[in-house]
Hints:
Layout: E1 2-9, E2 12-19, H1 21-35, H2 51-56, H3 60-82, E3 92-94, E4 105-112, E5 117-118, E6 126-130, H4 135-149, E7 152-155, E8 165-172, E9 189-192, H5 203-207, E10 214-220, E11 225-239, H6 245-250, H7 257-291, E12 293-294, H8 299-319, H9 324-330, H10 335-362, H11 370-381, H12 386-389, H13 394-417, E13 419-423
Parallel strand pairs: 6-13
Antiparallel strand pairs: 1-2, 2-4, 3-4, 5-12, 7-11, 8-9, 8-11, 10-11
Amino acid sequence: MKITNYEVKDTTVNANIDFTEEEIASHFQSLYKEYAPSIAIPGFRKGKAPLHLLKSHINYTRFYEDLMYRIAEQAIGFMLKEKKDDYVDYPKVDYSDLPIENESYSIGLKAELYPKVTLPDFSKISVKAVNPPSEEKLYNSKIDQFLNIHATWEPIEGAPEIGDYAIIQYTEIPEGKTADEIEVTGNPSVIELGKNTLFPDSDDKIMKCVPGETTVIPYTTSARSMQFKVQVISYKKKIVPILDQSLLEKVNIDESLEDFQNRLHEEAKDDYDKRKEDNQLTAVFQYLEEKAEIETIPESLLNSYVEMELNHFKDQLSKSKLSMDSFLESNNIKLEDFKKQLEPKAKQNVKVDMMIRQIYKEQPELALQDAEVIGKMKEFLGTYSKEDQNKLDMRHVENLIRDHMIREKVMNYITQTVHVTFTD
């Protein structure tokens, strides 16, 4: 077996792997032996019939599928071993002719390479980052969040005021229909009056309704204009409790007030440290994106990142009980056009990941040890039953774990190496 016609154009590799007659014959013979015990031939026990009879009873559609799988796997493994190029994914097979027993054979492979990245000198990087909110502000925010969760509601008699809350339902009015022709069927929503969280300038109209009344609110996006029929169910005032020991007991928190406050202070400190690190990394990668030189990104690589962005967007929609189809329809946009809108974000993510890979390659001290990866693999697989483990693609799992560990090592390296000045 040998590699011929290994050509690299931009970030695309086209190659041929040549097999000798003996290597092809070996694959045929190995597969005949595997098929023999499962083929019934009159007058012979399974696996004992002469080879020429066995060949006449083989399902050659399945046989060549299995044969080409083995040849392709061997060819791919050979190229990955012989060539140390930085492939985006496993090479894809390209062939039109099937092998003939006892004859040499050539199979084509195609692969995409990661673009080359040239980074600036890390010892000379100095960036500015924004300080996160202070630990005290983060602590107060956690207290406010806790108190708001355990707030109570009182009905309002008379007209509502700014800061009160409205419980509403709303439904889009279909084109060609009037508000009187439709019923409001949406799930109830709670909005704080004065913040116009439903639609811009919508609260004034809502506050003029008494419970049970409806109003029509227009809303225009870049794609189209819509109208919504909004019904006010009721108005309520939020009563925020006082933080004391009795409140903790009431909501079944088995801590003293002092211990509870100390715990939130610790959480606020951890939150502050995490946000500060995130701001530092954001500033560094913004600098690197400006200064680094990155070759053309392969289309297949960009498309895979667009799909990741799309899947993330679908997950966000599902949390709001919306489907991708309904989103596309309501915004009058085709899926392919929406994917185009996701490309800038996907491209930025590709660049960040490429820079992380390059930093890892340039810093030998960051190299992963096999024992580290095996340990993480065992830790990950320990969360699955034996039955579920058998369903996993272990090669894919290992790659994901390696990528995560590399990312973690690079992030730690950046926070410890790059000089960052924090400003308010």
